[in-house]
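Chapter summary example: a protein plus zinc ion.
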Amino acid sequence: MLQENDYPISVQFDFASGTFDPVQIRDDRKLSDLQMMFHDPIIVNNILANADPLIYEIWYHPFQTSRSDMALGVTRLLPGKIGDEYHMTKGHIHERDDQPEIYFCVRGEGYLLLQTIDGEFRAERWTTGTISHIPPMWAHRVVNTGDDLLVFVASYHLSAGHDYRPIIEKGFRKLLVDRDGQPTFVESQRWT
Ligand code: M6P
Ligand code: ZN
């Protein structure tokens, strides 16, 4: 017997704005939510003394049926920098170690950074149209190195869970900073 939540659901995505309708949950991530993520605390505190700029929005739609827990997330990552470091997502690793995710860059350009707990690191170059598979056990973060909005679509199981602790404690091995107008990887001082 089908339950009430076992029926198909569709939402309408708008490529121009990078939004979809109807949205169930919207989460705004401001600089104050990413204080521990950017490498220069002095610049972060100077900005926060006057303003708390929006870095990205996440638009969610959970699809929960009596037998499944798929989620759709659309992230709108604004262009910009905090000091010399490009806007990025907080980044997380899944609580469950058997849970992958698909990220689809539908607008903009940048990088997907991936890292294991043991410190294996990968950076996937993103342009509009890149689709990346994030295997289980890899932390993931997206960096917008372009002048335009970067929008990516994510699909994952809600039960995967988000663990931010390894990112808050040590961050990723490499940072993406602007050097003479060029996105450049540098080693993170926090990683030891
Ligand atoms: C995607 C998904 C979400 C995630 C969001 C932002 O939409 O992976 O689960 O929350 O990106 O990433 P973060 O949680 O690292 O800020
Ligand atoms: Zn994830």
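Key point: The chain has two helices and 17 strands.
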